[in-house]
Design goal:
The structure holds 2 protein chains of 2 kinds. In chain A, 25% of the residues lie in helices and 19% in strands. Chain A is α/β, with parallel strands linked by helices. Chain A has a single domain, classed as Nucleotidyltransferase, domain 5, CATH 3.30.420.130. Chain A has a 5-stranded mixed beta sheet with strand order 3-2-1-4-5, sandwiched between helices. In chain A, helix 1 packs parallel to helix 2. The termini of chain A are far apart. Chain B has 2 domains: 194 residues, 3-Layer(aba) Sandwich (Rossmann fold); 61 residues, Alpha-Beta Plaits, CATH 3.30.70.20. Chain B has 10 helices and 11 strands. The mean pLDDT of chain B is 95. The chains are: A alpha/beta, B alpha/beta. Chains A and B meet through helix 1 and helix 2 of A and strand 4 of B.
């Protein structure tokens, strides 16, 4: 299964980016093979609607889980519609979060964790 | 003739200049395009009366016809439409009402409904009519109201447009398709900084322009030096006159209380006429 993690840089050692729609990169990990791929978040500089756009992008990639810091209302609605499990409150590196996810230590979030435009000023 | 009064920085005196210029001219009208906070009307006793609602077209999706092809979502520059899995989501607060999704839809699944974003009001006098727009609270985008406001400009009159501050879409819309633009600044580092941003924008737009320095006497001479270096005509300097502030705080424009300023604004207008 593919999971997506918001990151400040590329690769498994990269630090988690707490923003969803305006994160720098998505690290996509196949939890069976542990193969990973880092992709630039094309929505990071969107004038508006970064959250829904980023949610569509990771939905197209086929990710079933998103691990991030915070998710705003529009992004949450889009991710939920896409059937993507939302895990928020993440800290540390991508590989640390993957390990915690595989151990079943993370639980999903069923509501937005921040208001609109929370990722705009960071 | 159409003249826009603009400035990158807020609080430099756009409304002061616009109101006083309009009052100094024969056969003029004033259109306040700062739809997020119009205040030209406070210098007029007459109440503002609603003329019309302003609406933008919002898409309505026929989900039985929609094939979820995603062309509308790809097209939308504002990310107002998301298609994920088998679902279409529309975020109305992101929609700018451009109508592109309806045009791009290959199966005609989109119709348009009117979404009211604000109103246009009219006040002032028969000699000097005043129009302004009010963007509804929570609406993100005032340009459709500014576009409709501009339609009220009477070709037989000199129309003064009071622009919103800044250099974003609403200010650009107000600085476009006019004969001249007055850029108001104050002689401070902030004033100069935002003036240079506005000059970059207006040169791109192509509207002829000149500068009015307001509150002359505070700050320094860097605005003068900048204008000289950039060959920008300096139309007038209005001194940091306590008497202007005193009148202003009583809701009296300077040209009503101090006749010498009426002459100053008439001279500004003469200079503009020579330049266009």
């Amino acid at each position: 299964m593919k999971i997506a993690i918001t990151a400040k840089g590329i690769g498994m050692d990269s630090e988690i980016d707490p923003r969803f729609g305006r994160c720098g990169y998505f690290v996509i990990i196949d939890t069976e093979t542990m193969e990973s791929e880092s992709i630039v978040n094309g929505s990071a500089m969107a004038s508006g609607g970064a959250g829904p756009q980023a949610a569509q992008a990771i939905s197209k990639i086929g990710a079933k889980v998103i691990i991030t810091g915070n998710v705003g209302p529009n992004a949450h609605q889009t991710l939920e519609a896409a059937g993507i499990e939302i895990i928020t409150g993440s800290k540390g590196t991508v590989s640390e979060m993957v390990e915690r996810y595989k151990k079943g230590e993370l639980s999903s979030s069923d509501s937005p964790t921040v208001g609109s435009h929370a990722g705009m000023n960071k | 003739m159409k003249i826009t009064v603009a400035s990158g920085k807020g609080g430099t005196g756009k409304t002061t200049i616009a109101v006083n210029l309009a009052m100094s001219l024969e056969n003029s009208m004033l259109i306040d395009c700062d739809v997020e906070g119009p205040n030209s009307h406070i210098f007029f006793k007459e109440p503002m009366v609603k003329l019309k609602d302003v609406s933008i077209p919002a898409p309505k999706f026929d989900l039985d016809t929609c094939t979820l092809c995603g062309k509308c979502a790809d097209f939308c520059q504002y990310n107002a439409i998301s298609i994920v899995g088998e679902k279409l989501l529309f975020f109305d607060e992101l929609c700018h009402g451009c109508g592109g999704c309806k045009i791009i839809c290959p199966v005609d699944a989109i119709t348009e409904v009117e979404h009211i974003v604000g109103v246009i009001e009219k006040g002032g006098t028969a000699d000097l009519p005043v129009y302004h727009g009010l963007l509804n609270i929570s609406e993100p985008f005032g340009v459709p109201i500014i576009n409709e406001l501009k339609q009220f400009a009477d070709d037989k009159k000199t129309t003064i447009f009071d622009s919103p501050p800044g250099t974003a879409c609403p200010a650009v819309e107000t600085m476009r398709d006019v004969d001249f633009c007055i850029l108001v600044t104050e002689p401070t580092p902030f004033g100069l900084h935002d003036l240079t941003l506005t000059v970059d924008v207006i040169r791109e737009i192509g509207t002829p322009f000149g500068v009015v320095v307001n509150r002359d006497g505070i700050g320094d001479d860097r605005v003068d030096r900048y204008c000289e270096k950039e060959n920008i005509p300096l139309l007038a300097k209005i001194s940091n006159d306590l008497e202007i502030a005193r009148l202003y705080s009583n809701g009296i424009p300077m040209v009503k209380g101090l006749p010498k300023y009426r002459e100053l604004f008439e001279e500004v207008f003469d200079k503009i006429k020579e330049m266009i």
